[in-house]
Model the fold of this input.
Amino acid sequence: MTDVSQVDTLFQFLALAKRNLSPGAWDYLMGGSETETTLNRNRRALDSLAFRPRVLCDVEHIDTGTTLLGQKLKLPIVLAPIGSMQDIIAEGGVVPTRAAARAGVIHMLSSVCAPGAEEVSRAADYPKFFQLYVRGDNKWVDDTIANALACGYRAICLTVDRAYYGRRERDIAKGHLPVSRKGAASESFQAAFTWRDVERIRGNVELPLVLKGIATAEDAEFAVEKGIDGIYVSNHGGRQLDHSQGSIEVLPEIVSAVGGRAEIIVDGGILRGTDVIKALALGATAVGIGRLQGIALGAGGENAVVRMLEILDNEIRRAMGLLGVTKISDLDASHLARAEPLARNWLDSAFPLVSEGYGAAASEIDDLSLALPR
Ligand SMILES: Cc1cc2nc3c(=O)[nH]c(=O)nc-3n(C[C@H](O)[C@H](O)[C@H](O)COP(=O)(O)O)c2cc1C
Done:
């Protein structure tokens, strides 16, 4: 596994991951559905926000800690569920869960991520969440949730933006079938899943229940009425319905509809500490990280995910200090203004140095060391 102790910037993980992953796994990780408009809009929505910093505020001591659905976090970050993780790293879900335990964040395990709920729960003793795709009848759903709860997962998340699997054209063109889709159960269970099922599950589960893939105020309102504890605003990282709005664009209407009755997680295009801060300033409790987690996993496994979180922590602290806030609860919409986004594709918008040729090879890592304080 690559030594990532010298990696001091997030973009350096890209070259390492691209070198380590097969072309099929790389495209599976990085791609979106159809025209990849949603994928690009996630970044564009983030880029359409600028900061309004306040100065002379005594920002010597900064606290990035928060609480999400009853769990204390050192950073307001969830390692988002990733299925078919074995395509990226052979050991699968045990790796991010160990990294999350070390870094003080939450890992949300996908139900289609090997080696499964039991083994992943044994890998690290700390609170973690379980995300479910419906791949069977009511009994299958109830048994799977009961098993996750017995394994000690502290929240159950139902992903609801996957009634059908998005057309990921990079995979289709290459004939790449992600491992979790090989011999997968019929999609019809997921397609037939409705609010009635959510209500039934709510009646059976005492621990926090989260819906992932909420993208409108109407559905957020519905979810809160049904007693959902966590609204996970997401368009699946632009991998499902194409031509959707960017997640950060819909966040304000959802925050307003929820009105504090549930906690809000948001994901989609979060690749930098400043992205995390924008989401929190708009009212999210925490953000989910999908591709950046996969990139770090591919670059160097557990240590790389921990390092990625350390660098994010550093970016978040600096940006908070420069904004004039010392704790997350100080962040609000007064720290943001609308801005014209620069015309760049989604990856360039987060990591512009890559297109200038930086980080093209792992051997350059020493030269690129930017003396990040450890
Ligand atoms: C390779 C990959 C696999 C994913 N698998 C799942 C999954 O099994 N369940 C799920 O709810 N979301 C899944 N997602 C979506 C992520 O949980 C998350 O919503 C998305 O990646 C966030 O956008 P970002 O990649 O721009 O951070 C997956 C995303 C990626 C990139």
Q: What stands out?
A: DSSP finds 16 helices and twelve strands in the chain. The longest helix spans residues 291-323.
